[in-house]
């Protein structure tokens, strides 16, 4: 199972997300081999001999990917796959087994397995499949993030229009009252109108800042891995 845990510093000082795998196989020599192959690629790898232990680990860790044997003592690989999809839907699962058949492959794919490999698995092929899985997972997360940001942007624009329209009407009425001959010299009324005006301008200021989420300034990170934070409480700079 893969785990998004900590970050390490990569080239240029940027933060690189660490990947973690949980290898599930009841053969110690197989686990040892897979762990060494994957660790050599820079991944953090945990291993357990059973599906039951794998699920226990999920209570304390999250993973990008599960690499599991199909035939295990106790709970099998397909049942583990079903449980993983419930416990951690974003986690991908690659099944690797020496007892492959078209029927089991189809069943695994229907249950949501990302990939299906047969033992003995070529080392280079394994690395390629793992990298491909992580790349597709990252791509899916980026696409979802884009959709979420787009939805937020559209909602913000709609709310801004709907809120600013009545606020402008209220401001217009306040201005009329401030200039009314019978109220112009009423100090108490004028102070109240001024407070109302100031509060409305504060609301409009917040709405203006929210609207900036749709501008090029907040979209300058094309991969959406970084975000510009807009402080809604900061005073507006009119300069």
Task: Report on this structure.
With 239 residues, the protein is of the alpha/beta class. Helix 2 packs parallel to helix 3 (77-87) and helix 5 (123-179) packs antiparallel against helix 6. The longest helix has 57 residues, at 123-179. Strand 5, helix 3 and strand 6 form a beta-alpha-beta unit. The protein folds into two domains: 7-121, Response regulator (Rossmann fold, 3-Layer(aba) Sandwich); 147-219. The strands form two sheets. The chain has a five-stranded parallel β-sheet, with helices on both faces. A two-stranded antiparallel ribbon has the order 1-2. The protein is rod-shaped. Mean pLDDT is 76; it is low at 1-15 and 220-234. It has helices spanning 28-39, 51-57, 77-87, 102-111, 123-179, 187-211, and strands spanning 7-9, 15-17, 20-24, 44-48, 65-69, 92-97, 115-118. Helix content is 51%, strand content 13%. The relative contact order is 0.08.
Short description:
This protein is an alpha/beta fold.
Q: Roughly how much helix do the residues carry, as a percent range?
A: 40-55%
The assigned CATH architecture of the largest domain is 3-Layer(aba) Sandwich
Q: Count of DSSP E strands?
A: 7
For the residues shown, what is the average pLDDT? 76
Looking at this structure, what is the CATH superfamily of the largest domain?
Answer: Response regulator
Taking the alpha carbons of the first and last residues, their distance comes to: 53 Å
pLDDT < 50 stretches: 1-15, 220-234
Helix tally equals 6
Enter the CATH topology name of the largest domain.
Answer: Rossmann fold
Rounded to the nearest angstrom, the radius of gyration is 29 Å
- Classify the secondary structure makeup into a structural class: alpha/beta
Beta-strand content: 5-15%
Could you state the order of secondary-structure elements as H and E?
EEEHEHEHEHEHH
Which CATH class of the largest domain?
Alpha Beta
Across the major sheet, the strand order is 4-3-5-6-7
Task: List the domain count as a whole number.
Answer: 2
Largest sheet: 5 strands, parallel
What is the 3D form? Answer: rod-shaped
